[in-house]
């Protein structure tokens, strides 16, 4: 591909998105640049504080449990209070909790504050995803979610390298650095991002349509099917940071070898996310989700046969491609099935599937490896990928272009005079018609 075509492709990848999206994108990048706790918590507890691996695993589980609890609460806050207030509360709270964690000495205090960090750091996700759906046109959402995912991985790749150097000097500096960047993210949201929550028009209020509650989400069979499949997929992907280092360590590889192999994941996401998204943007999401589930399951299953270091890196490349395809496609499906005035609750339930997986995956990996061996664990990822692929195929078989989740019918409301210009695009979304802009099913 020529340089001119690469430039044209890059321009097309970023063209047409509203200014508010780019401020939201920038806040995501800043937030991920400070990712220190999730990356170095185990090393901090075992190497710096001298605690056992079991205690480190307990703290990681509590961190995940905090995310499970906050997902639903944050989803309700996103719909009731708004996207912007929820993000501000979550980010300011995260900054305080992370800074506090760096000063904790007693094991019980460390565990409690780690759970608090898990709650606060996960609380902003439903609001971010709901705001992105509000301000981006339906036909641009897959691209927008891909760009946001790209920012997450770019920030994480940079922070991992920088945090490794900081950790050699002082773990406390890493905690305070993450707290500072998270607080900077909150400042950016406060100064640059207006509220985007769609308001119901007078006609919709007068009709007294049913409100969207958590019960509405739980009764939405198709959407809960997506949540269940998301849990299976995230259970597979989480093994990259849970079971893969254990397996490589047992095979005689050093932590540096694992770092080199897993770095391929971040590099490939940064390099391939945008061109691959341009390729899949208007293709059948049903087939994309099926293919990505199979690539994820069998990409990890290949680890059972890996011997040399390059073979482990090859498996990472396979499931990274699955990750690149699955993430924006599944997010587009989640928004498609979410009613406009219930996006926060729907996004909160979807976010919870990843939080539960982060809690279950370490327990699952430890039990299977200890009792049956790593080969059985990697074989089970292939089974999970196959089940997820079949689930996507069946779940989306009858999904037509205009289908949405259960809940109050969105009303077409004109933009109010008080609405900021940068979020005016969120209002036409209330009409059912734009949903047809999403890729048609086969």
Give a description of the structure.
There is one protein chain. With 442 residues, this protein is an all-alpha fold. The chain has a single domain (20-190, 214-437), classed as Growth Hormone, Chain: A (Up-down Bundle), CATH 1.20.1250. The chain is built from 18 helices and no strands. Residues 202-208 and 405-442 have low confidence and may be disordered.
Q: List the secondary-structure elements in sequence, H or E.
A: HHHHHHHHHHHHHHHHHH
Low-confidence stretches: 202-208, 405-442
- The chain-level structural class is mainly alpha
Kindly report the oligomeric state of this protein: single chain
Secondary structure elements and their pairing?
Layout: H1 3-14, H2 19-33, H3 37-48, H4 53-80, H5 83-101, H6 107-123, H7 125-135, H8 141-169, H9 171-192, H10 202-207, H11 214-219, H12 221-237, H13 239-250, H14 255-280, H15 285-301, H16 309-336, H17 343-371, H18 374-395
Question: How would you sum up this structure in a few lines?
Answer:
The protein has helices at residues 3-14, 19-33, 37-48, 53-80, 83-101, 107-123, 125-135, 141-169, 171-192, 202-207, 214-219, 221-237, 239-250, 255-280, 285-301, 309-336, 343-371, 374-395. By secondary structure, it is an all-alpha fold. Helix 4 packs antiparallel against helix 17 (343-371) and helix 12 (221-237) runs antiparallel to helix 16 (309-336).
